[in-house]
Structures are given as C-alpha cells and as structure tokens.
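Hi V.,

Quick status before I head out on leave. The structure for the redesign project is tokenized and pasted below; the design run finished overnight.
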C-alpha cells in the first residue's frame, strides 16, 4: 500500500457489465496531484486482461477526501473466471500501479460446475508435530470452499489441484487461536474426478497431500 494514496474499486456487477468507480483517497496530511493513465481488469489466473475505459485526467486529491473516477466495463465476452482491477497513475509525477482490491466473477456455465457439499473427514500428519483434519469441500457456482483444522495451530500453505491442474486460490483465511482454515478457490467442474489437497507447514518434512475422489 502506498502511504500517500489509497485506491479501491466500488462497483455493481450486472449480467453484461460492471459499473462503478475507482475511489482515490489521500492518506497523509499533504495534497497530491494525480494523473489517471490507464485501468484494466486482470484475470486472477493470469494471462487475460481487458482495458477499462477511464477518462485520462489530472486530479487534485485533498488529504483524507475521496475522489471518484467512474468506469463501465463490458464483461459479457470475457472468459469465465475471477478478475481484479488495476489502475495506473502518476502520483506527484511518479508512475505507480494500484490494485483495486475488490474482485468480480464472470460466471461459468451453470451445467459445467459442481454444486453441493462433499464430506471428507480425514486426518493427515503434517510432519512430526502437527496434523490436519480436512472436514469438507463446498462446491458453488463461482468458487470452491475447503474447511480444515490444524492441530496444534501452526501456519500451513494449501495448494489445490483438480485432475492435476491447479485451482487458483482466491482467499486463505486463518483463525490462529483455533487452527481453523478456510480456503476459497476457483470452482470444481463436473468433469473433474479427483481433487488433490497439498499441505505444507514449517520444516523440510512438514508436507503431505490428500486425494479426494469426487462423486
């Protein structure tokens, strides 16, 4: 985060468009001159991106005041996936790229994605000192949610593979007190047969994997 300026995207998602604004806010005591250069929507999975039409303009951003840069993006022809915004600016003459924060999904065809909960209820050792209980997988139209519990609570990295192909991780939430972990990723498709859950803790030997056969 830039200590002088913050940028966040606020928008509404419609079937064919995303309409909203980038909100620029001065975060210190000084006024800033900001030149808006370019904006884009970038696929979380990498590769595809789409230019977001914004007016090239010069703005004076006062301390702790919001300035709005409106936009409207056509998304009907984007590939299915999750997208985030980026905004290129000149801040007091210095070029910088700011993430927009909030993401949006272009939905997968309804008939192609899995739905419902898959119970796993299996425990695996994570090295010599910890174990991980994989509770369940919730399949939805635009994401997959995985629920874990680590005992004792230690940091754990999670990687998901569907039939050998990586599922992009969207969020990794940890309750450090209880060791509960919730991972949100791209959706599982009906054609997928096996979900592999790869777990890695601290230490050379603190890693394992678990295969879940999908019904």
């Amino acid at each position: 985060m830039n200590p002088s300026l913050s940028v966040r995207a606020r928008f509404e998602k419609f079937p064919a468009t995303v309409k909203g604004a980038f909100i620029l806010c001065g975060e210190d005591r000084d006024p800033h001159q900001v030149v808006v250069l370019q904006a884009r929507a970038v696929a979380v999975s990498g590769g595809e991106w789409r230019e977001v039409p914004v007016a090239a303009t010069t703005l004076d951003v006062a301390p702790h005041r919001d300035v709005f840069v409106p936009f409207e993006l056509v998304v009907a022809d984007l590939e299915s996936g999750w997208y985030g915004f980026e905004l290129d600016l000149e801040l007091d003459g210095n070029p910088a790229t700011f993430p927009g924060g909030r993401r949006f999904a272009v939905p997968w065809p309804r008939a192609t994605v899995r739905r419902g909960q898959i119970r796993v209820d299996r425990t695996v050792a994570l090295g010599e000192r910890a174990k991980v209980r994989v509770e369940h997988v919730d399949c939805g139209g635009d994401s997959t949610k995985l629920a874990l519990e680590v005992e004792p609570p230690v940091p754990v990295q999670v990687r998901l593979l569907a039939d050998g192909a990586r599922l992009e991780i969207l969020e990794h939430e940890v309750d450090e007190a209880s060791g509960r972990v919730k991972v949100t990723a791209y959706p599982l498709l009906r054609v997928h047969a096996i979900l592999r859950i790869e777990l890695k803790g601290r230490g050379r030997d603190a890693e394992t994997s678990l295969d879940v056969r999908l019904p």
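Above is the designed sequence. The first strand starts at residue 5 and ends at 13.

G. will cover questions while I'm gone.

Best,
W.
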